[in-house]
Amino acid sequence: MMRKMTPLQTLGIVFCAIAVVWLTMQIAVFNTCLESKFIPANANYLCQKEQNYLLLRVHDLAKSEPTCTKLLKVLETNVNTLTDRPKIFVITPTFTRPVQKAELTRLSHTLLLVPNIHWIVIEDAAIKTDLVTNFLAKSQLKFTHLNVPTPHPMKMSQDDPSWLKPKGVLQRNAGLAWIRSHVSLQERGVVYFADDDNTYDLDIFEEMRYTHMVSVWPVGLVGGLMVERPLVKEGRVVGWNTVWKPDRPFPIDMAGFAVNVTLLLKHPEAGFSLSVPRGYQETRLLRDIVSVDQLEPKADNCTKVLVWHTRTEHPKLKQEWKLSIPSNVNIEV
Ligand code: UDP
Ligand code: MN
Questions:
Q1: Cα gap 121→135, rounded to integer Å
Q2: pTM for the complete prediction?
Q3: Candidate of 96, 167, 272 to mutate for ligand 1, largest count of ligand atoms within 8 Å of Cβ
Q4: How does 223-252 read in b/e, with b if 16+ C-beta sit within 10 Å?
Q5: How far is residue 202's CA from residue 98's CA, in Å, rounded to a whole number?
Q6: Which terminus of the chain, N or C, has less C-beta within 10 A?
Q7: Residue 183 near residue 261 (C-beta atoms within 8 A)
Q8: Hey, which residues does 160 pair with through a beta bridge?
Q9: Cα 257 to the chain's mean position, in Å?
Q10: Would you call 157 exposed, middle or buried from its count of C-beta atoms within 10 A (0-12, 13-18, 19+)?
Q11: Where is the active site (predicted)?
């Protein structure tokens, strides 16, 4: 049954509809204008700024009105067909082990289906391996290949008694450092930390693409639950269903958020650290750049799972030890 709308809501929707049509026209006219030779050199930048500002205002308005959110999707589709969509910088730490090439193959095939993406792959190694170097060269993706080794197993913090190898911390920081020295403040884009063993629905990339500050969504198969997710009320994050260490300020997995690239450029200190307890890396980064009430819930107000924290089983290789010459001599696996 249709719900009855208040005059204010009707007005909001009418405004949204006008804004969508007007912005689309504006973008179309601007594109035609760009073809002409008589425009100032900074016109593109100025217009992008103006568009971003308008989009932001419409987003504000749309927060409380589902019909408006749908109209906004129409606008985003229009913008996508008419202009370059914001870029997604995917930061992936990776390390040498038997399943590495299989994991990278699977992830790269997902990323090949995502428009305007830049894959930053950081090896946990003192020198770049031939395997990853050759793999990326033939991947057909736009990529950057970096490396930084993780120090030996260490205590995660003063109050954490366990000795663990921190996973991907220095590698993600190296990815951020690369972005900070190669991406300009004018770039429209978003940064996502995609581990090499997770499973990604293509829709999650379009959800995160228009992130103003930090967007969040559910992650399947993590934290000892079927799904961990932000709890959303009237378009805002009001809590979490997390059971593991629920007192963390941002009790969320690395796969469950994306950050606007400009926000990261404006906070050069924001990053990960070797000296925080397990589970606090996400908080370590996010606490410096955003507050919980500013988070932008995606995936239909965090009601859909579009990424899974899958983990690959260690392969059984015990027959290998019976061989005098390993089975993979002269053949890359
Ligand atoms: N990783 C790494 N060095 C390591 C262990 C992991 O660079 O010694 C990478 C790994 O390839 C993955 C990310 O760090 O992209 C997170 O590691 P993992 O998937 O093992 O973490 P978990 O699934 O336990 O959260
Ligand atoms: Mn993992």
A1: 11
A2: 0.81
A3: 167
A4: beeebbbbebeeebbeebebeeeeebebbb
A5: 26
A6: N
A7: yes
A8: 157
A9: 6
A10: middle
A11: 282
